[in-house]
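Supplementary Methods S3. Complex input for the D-glutamic acid-bound model.
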Amino acid sequence: MKSTTVSRWLVATFCALTAITAAQAQTTKLPNVTVLATGGTIAGTGATSTTTVGYTAATVGVQQLINAVPELAKIANVKGEQVFQIASESMTNEHWLTLGKRVNALLAQNDVDGIVITHGTDTMEETAYFLDLVVKSKKPVVLVGAMRPSTALSADGPINLYNAVSIAGSQEAVGKGVLLALNDQIHAARDVTKTNTSTPDSFKTPELGLLGYVQGGKPFFYRASTRKHTTDSEFDIANLTALPQVDIVYGYANMNTVALDAFVAAGAKGIIHAGVGDGSIAARVKPGLIAARKKGTIIVRSSRVGQGILARNGEANDDELDFVASDTLSPQKARILLMLALTKTNNTRDIQRMFYTY
Ligand code: DGL
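Predicted complex, serialized as structure tokens:
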């Protein structure tokens, strides 16, 4: 082989190796984000491109969701796992324990920088708050979903997934607690709620406010939650195989105790009373709550209203009745905190402290 040919071969080889090294360097500089898929509308399909209601949720697999957003490869090294494939109205305590344990196992790995959980929007706020209380890492965990199925015109899933991965791979999101991100907004798990049955701007934190925005694939934070979460939480699910049964009794005019009595008879360890107004209890319902408390059931007064502080000793003498006040937690989130509280204590003073802490 002539020397000029050898020289050309060496130069070509050197250039190729340099390019590979640069590409590898670029890839290794990208954060490692794992996407855990659970189902929902983001994985949903409809009969036509204009079907935005009446579609089938939980039909598209995690790798297809990732492949539909090739831009992800520019912002993170993304791996996908299909943890469940369900519509989120069917989420159970057992699903939460499985998901929470998987999240903690992954975040304990040095090669995982953040996690995105794709999820149905119906119970996303609940899963987010449960994880906010049990995740044992400061690394970002971001819940994401979609209000339109993947087959719809202007489906919001792809951009929501891209934004969620950008947050999960960011330094800015470290230590912020579990986050929920749709519609270019970033919300805290504790305070966010679904406010509309079908529009893409459904998730809001009405009075306490969102934490920030995602723009151009970058998160911008303007607030942080003041309540304890993740590594500051006293709750640990590592050795739990079940959660205590806690049910919600919804308040309304002309209410009776049929539901309350049935829950207590079925062995509920706790009852969330989602009262009218500031957690008011109907005169004909109060005796049933008092009797349940006397049998050892923990009673938490919450409100169906949605915003504001549920004042202890306001609409009921909680000190005398030995009830717990839910502070600003919605009934569905008060249920989650009470379930976890009951894995630690039955002492109502201790439980009330937890409602003022998380
Ligand atoms: N069945 C609902 C769910 O899985 C669909 C709503 C959605 O994901 O946006 O939560």
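The pocket of D-glutamic acid is lined by residues 40-41, 57, 87-89, 120-122, 145-147 (CB under 6 Å). The longest helix spans residues 3-29.
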